[in-house]
Write a structure and sequence with these properties.
Shape: globular
Strand content: 5-15%
Structural class: alpha+beta
Distance between the termini: 13 Å
Helix content: 40-55%
Length: 176
């Protein structure tokens, strides 16, 4: 089951490696909603993003704080995924959700701009499937207020992944 695989990724990859120091709490409290989209059509995928905005509008963050939208048949090509992510960002803006929600991105072939494909740092945003993560801005702001030096998180993650190396990170992700 896809949702179980993604939960395993969150627990045994994102939380275990502390890529996001805020993920453990919402994971343990079961406040992550998982939406699986099997369609290959970009329109269907964007409809799912919109539906999740609406879902989050109607649910208190104490119940569901964040959503992971998992695309099982779309966006296997990283560039296609980036194009779809850009459309999702446009949708967020067009629906006046800027400042309400923000999007984070994960993909099996994630590659930061300007970095080599085999740079271990890319593994901070790699996942078993293409994923768009919808976060509540209020929740992010609240957590960042309690975290000492949140700007250090990306550099800490880069140091960790590069210290482990490509092969170790690749094995860690594939072991899921």
């Amino acid at each position: 089951m896809i949702i179980n695989e993604i939960k395993k990724w969150v627990e045994n990859y994102v939380v275990k490696h502390n890529f996001c120091p805020f993920a453990a709490k919402v994971y343990i409290e079961d406040r992550i909603h998982y939406k699986v989209v099997d369609s290959e059509k970009v329109e269907d995928c964007l409809t799912a993003v919109n539906e999740e905005f609406l879902r989050l509008d109607q649910i208190d963050s104490k119940q569901i704080d964040t959503t992971l939208i998992v695309f099982t048949n779309a966006f296997s090509d990283f560039q296609e995924y980036l194009n779809a992510l850009e459309l999702a960002e446009t949708l967020l803006a067009d629906l006046d959700y800027e400042g309400v929600y923000q999007l984070a991105s994960f993909h099996p072939e994630y590659q930061f701009a300007g970095e080599e494909k085999n740079d271990p740092a890319n593994f901070t945003n790699r996942a078993p499937f293409p994923i768009i993560h919808i976060l509540r801005e209020d929740s992010v702001s609240e957590v960042l207020e309690t975290f000492d030096d949140p700007n250090s998180i990306p550099n800490r993650n880069i140091k960790f992944t590069r210290g482990k190396g490509f092969d170790w990170m690749d094995k860690s992700l594939k072991s899921l």
